[in-house]
Amino acid sequence: MSVSTQNDVILQARGLAKRWGDVVALDGVDLTVHKGEVITVIGPSGGGKSTLLRCLNGLEVPDAGSVRVGGAPLRVGAPDIDALRRRVGMVFQAFHLFPHISVLDNLTLAPTVVCTEDRATATRHARELLDRVGLADKASARPGELSGGQQQRVAIARALAMRPDALLFDEPTSALDPETVGEVLGVIREIAADGTTMVIVTHEISFAADVSSRTVFMEHGRIIAEGATQPLLRTPTSDRLRAFLARMPTM
Ligand SMILES: Nc1ncnc2c1ncn2[C@@H]1O[C@H](COP(=O)(O)OP(=O)(O)O)[C@@H](O)[C@H]1O
Ligand SMILES: [Mg+2]
After folding, report:
1. Domains of the chain
2. Which of 38, 62, 103, 107 has its CA 20 to 30 A from that of 5?
């Protein structure tokens, strides 16, 4: 990674802690995401990966610690909370598209209603984004008419329609049929190559290896290992990361 300064910090989590009853989801997590960085988060199920992402865009409120978006604290009840949250887009495992409206309307709804972008601009941008994810011909389709991989590509385009500063992906291919995983990973790769700042939770280790500059390994709510992706995955120095990778299908 090139030399970075405080100015190019997009997201900063400090000392994040979260528990549900006796279950510790996050146990003191620090993470700084710089502009243009692509970070993958890996680790066993239940390790706190989703909770971390949800805290980063304010879907979850940590018990302790702080999140900053472009330097501004993400605080419940703060007047700018909605505006800050909109700067951090999220793509979920299960798409969450609006089923009753067209693909195009899925992309223009929030920009026109929430961000009061004018319809012509929002529509032009939406069509550009659909083209970018290879779905220009599906603008008037309903989500239910599309394959899982196509729906996830729409979800990615919809997140980009908000012109976010960063995009968070929570296992974007885990709910897909194996034959459509590749097309979604391909789109994420292209968006990464365009310089979009991203944090991606994934079980696709070979994808993590080629898309991200930095990888974070989480277990039991903590970051156990992190560093430049290639050396971290090729020659892991953490025993627990080595054991985790040994259980994964390919590398
Ligand atoms: N809403 C919730 N209520 C109760 N427990 C939760 C909730 N969300 C997550 N957890 C628990 O917190 C831990 C971390 O979960 P999660 O962040 O989803 O991990 P991961 O995404 O790495 O699988 C798990 O033990 C999970 O069961
Ligand atoms: Mg999860």
Report:
1. 1-36+46-82+202-251 (3.40.50.300)
2. 62
